[in-house]
Amino acid sequence: MKKAEIVIIGGGVIGASVAYHLTERGAKDVLILERENQQGLGSTGKATGGVRAQFETDINIKMSLYSLDFFQNWDFDCGYEPRGYLFFATDEKQFDYLRRNVEKQKSLGVKAVEIVDTPAISEIVKGLNCADIVGGAFGAKDSFINPLAVMRGFTELATARGAKIETETQVTAIETRSGKIVGVKTDKGKIECEKVVLCSGAWAKSLAKTAGVDLPVEPQKRQIVWAKSETDLPANLPMVVDLGSGFHFRPAKDSRDEILFAYPDADEKPGFDTNFDEAFVAKVYERAKYRASFLAETSIVREKCRAGLYENTPDHHAIIGDCEIEGLYFCTGFSGHGVMHSPAAGRAAAEIVLDGAASFLDVSCLSLERFAVGELLHETAFI
Ligand SMILES: Cc1cc2nc3c(=O)[nH]c(=O)nc-3n(C[C@H](O)[C@H](O)[C@H](O)COP(=O)(O)OP(=O)(O)OC[C@H]3O[C@@H](n4cnc5c(N)ncnc54)[C@H](O)[C@@H]3O)c2cc1C
Q1: Residue 378 pLDDT more than 90?
Q2: Is 90 exceeded by the pLDDT of residue 287?
Q3: Sheet holding 189-192, edge to edge
Q4: 126, 161, 229, 288: least buried by Cβ within 10 Å?
Q5: What percent of the chain has pLDDT over 70?
Q6: Are residues 265 and 131 in the same domain?
Q7: Are residues 334 and 365 in the same domain?
Q8: What span, in angstroms and rounded, lies between the C-alpha atoms of 107 and 95?
Q9: Which domain holds residue 259?
Q10: pLDDT score for 266
Q11: Last residue of a domain, one of 281, 312, 343
């Protein structure tokens, strides 16, 4: 029977990062199993590639700080580009929330984040309708990266250090005996192993169930409209987020006239459907038209519009850690932040697998146990 020391289920950005960090620490026998014929066909290939430290919870801010630093200093070109994130508030309650968060972000070491008034916002985003905006927060060091490049970088460096990846291999069950991992069943046969790291994103719940673990990760469709302007867009557009509605837009990478926009559609029910829904276009344009004529006066680039899955947990934070089954670890449930947090998450998971706990950053608040003991986290800046 085939054997590996550590099996990683799922070859998206998270599985690749876990493999990278395990092999960086010297793990030799690491095998990634990916059911598709190539990596990146899950959520990673659908992500827009935003990275921000503008969060509410300490853990999200710390994971972002670590990851931003990683992307900026990585030898591998992952398309890192510090274009900034602007959050704007349309009422005083939201503005207070941004003020509190900026204070916290600064106290945790976030640089170049500041509260901005409406005239400053209209300078940062020329042409934005600011009639209902009371203020905002701008993080100049928040950035864009290329999600597939990040995944490729982790994979190339992990495989160069000995990790293996098998595509077109679907794991059908995680096998346990007497409360311990003994292997995985795949559509190509069994693989014996003592450790499994579950990184199958939106599809993690049913696999965890095969080991008798209830993993609260639910898939939810998220869509992006891709549009093109006849004239150049305003220069140096950052990511712009309406905190109240979640409507956001950003320029396409390396483009002067293409733009992406989206918002969290409350009509979207949990499920695995990833067909782009034409009705979403009108819903997004309704918001876009109000916000700026440079958004309204665009035409949709149908072939680039897309739908993918968020892998939501009840508190919109990842699940990183072990569980009652010896040798079974989770690194999933990123609730829409998996690409940006992949460096910190992969390192944390690798340290937990190899040492029993993450020492570079305390991620114990992200354990699966938090749901059983009712210690949920709270993050409002969830888009
Ligand atoms: C529209 C959209 C925009 C987004 N924008 C951002 C953003 O700007 N910034 C950000 O940080 N995040 C963003 N995200 C979220 C981000 O894409 C995810 O958090 C991240 O990709 C999760 O990575 P992953 O490796 O866990 O999951 P995935 O990339 O989904 O990888 C999981 C892999 O597991 C494989 N798999 C599943 N089941 C099995 C099985 N049984 N056997 C073997 N393999 C299996 C799948 O084929 C898949 O390749 C966005 C998501 C969407 C949908």
Answers
A1: no
A2: yes
A3: 2-3, 189-192, 180-186, 171-177
A4: 126
A5: 100
A6: yes
A7: yes
A8: 18
A9: 82-142+219-312
A10: 87
A11: 312
- From 286, 312, 338, the end of a domain falls on 312
User: Please, is 254 exposed, middle or buried when counting C-beta atoms within 10 Å of its C-beta (0-12, 13-18, 19+)?
Assistant: exposed
Say which residue the tokens 């059911």 belong to.
35
List, for residues 44-91, the tens digit of each pLDDT value. Answer: 999 999 999 999 999 999 999 999 999 999 999 999 999 999 999 999
* Same domain membership, residue 279 and residue 324: no
- The 10s digit of each residue's pLDDT in 25-43 is 999 999 999 999 999 999 9
Does a structural domain hold residue 52? no
Q: Is residue 264 part of a domain?
A: yes
DSSP state of 114: E
Q: Domain with 201 in it: what CATH number?
A: 3.50.50.60
Give which of 241, 267, 219, 271 is closest to 380, Cα–Cα: 241
Do the domain assignments include residue 167? yes
Residue 306 clears pLDDT 80, i.e. is over it? yes
- Of 43, 55, 145, 165, which is best to mutate to test ligand 1, by the most ligand atoms within 8 angstroms of its C-beta? 43
Indicate if 223 and 300 belong to the same structural domain: yes
In this structure, the residue with its CA closest to atom 52 of ligand 1 is 47
Q: What is the pLDDT of residues 184-231, one digit of tens each?
A: 999 999 999 999 999 999 999 999 999 999 999 999 999 999 999 999
The verdict on the CB of residue 201 being under 6 Å from ligand 1 is: yes
Statement: residue 380 has pLDDT above 80 = no
Question: How many angstroms does the Cα of residue 155 sit away from the middle of ligand 1?
Answer: 15
Q: Answer yes or no: is pLDDT of 269 > 90.
A: no
- Kindly report, residue by residue over 121-136, the tens digit of the pLDDT: 999 999 999 999 999 9
170 shares a domain with 25: yes
Atom of ligand 1 nearest to the CA of 200: 34
Looking at the fold, whether 164 and 307 belong to one and the same domain comes out as no
User: Which pair of structure tokens corresponds to residue 93?
Assistant: 């309650």
- Start-to-end C-alpha separation, the chain: 45
- Rounded Cα gap, residues 224 and 264, in angstroms: 10
Asked if 325 and 213 touch (Cβ cutoff 8 Å), the reply is: yes
Q: Both 349 and 308 in a single domain?
A: no
200 Cβ below 6 A of ligand 1:
yes
Is there a single domain that holds both residue 157 and residue 306?
Answer: no
